[in-house]
Specification:
This protein is an alpha+beta fold. It has a single domain, classed as Alpha-Beta Plaits (2-Layer Sandwich). It contains 2 helices and 4 strands; from the N terminus they run βαββαβ.
Amino acid sequence: MKTEIHVSGMRCSGCELLVGEALEEMAGVESANASHETGVVEVRYDPAQVEIAAIRAVIEEQGFKVTG
C-alpha cells in the first residue's frame, strides 16, 4: 500500500534523509521518500505489518509535525 503524509518542519535534504531512514528501519515499511520542498513523505508499506499511526509516530519522534 502507498500513502502520502503531509509533514511540516522539514527544511533540507538532511531532514528528508532523517525521516526516510527512520521509516525504512520499521518492519513492514518497504520504502519512504520525503521531500522538504513539498512537505510530503511518500511511504510504501504492508498494512498487515505496520499501522499508519505507527508511521506517523516515527515521523514525529524525529522532530517533525504530521499535518495531514
